[in-house]
Amino acid sequence: MPIGFLTMYIVSKFTTAPTKELQSFIDDIRRPKGGAVMIEK
Amino acid sequence: MSAEAQKGDFTSSLGRIYGVYTGGFVAFVVFIGVLERAGVPNHILGYLFVAFTIGVYAAIGIMSRTMQVDEYYVAGRKVPSFYNGMATAADWMSAASFIGMAGTLYLLGYDGLAFILGWTGGYVLVATLIAPYLRKFGCYTVPDFLAFRFGGNAARIAGIVVLMSCSFTYVVAQIVGTGLIGARLLGMSFEVAVFVGLVGILVCSMLGGMRAVTWTQVAQYIVLIVAYLVPVVILSTQKFGIPIPQLTYGSVLSEIQTREAALGVSAAASHVVPFARYDPLNFFALVLCLMVGTASLPHVLMRYFTTPSVREARSSVAWTLLFIFILYFTAPAYAAFAKLEVFENVIGKPLAQLPGWVYNYGKIGLVQICGTNAVDLATITAACGRISGFTGVLQLANFGIQADAIVIATPEIAGLPYVVSGLVAAGGLAAALSTADGLLLAIANALSHDVYARMINKNAPVARKLIIARVLLILVAIIAAWVASGRPADIVAMVAWAFSLAAAGLFPALVMGIWSKKTTAAAAVAGIWAGFLTTLVYLVVTRYFPGFGVNVLGMYSNVHPITGAALVDIAKLKAEQPAIFQQGWVAISHPLASKVGYFNVANISPACSACRSAS
Question: The pTM is what?
Answer without folding.
Answer: 0.86
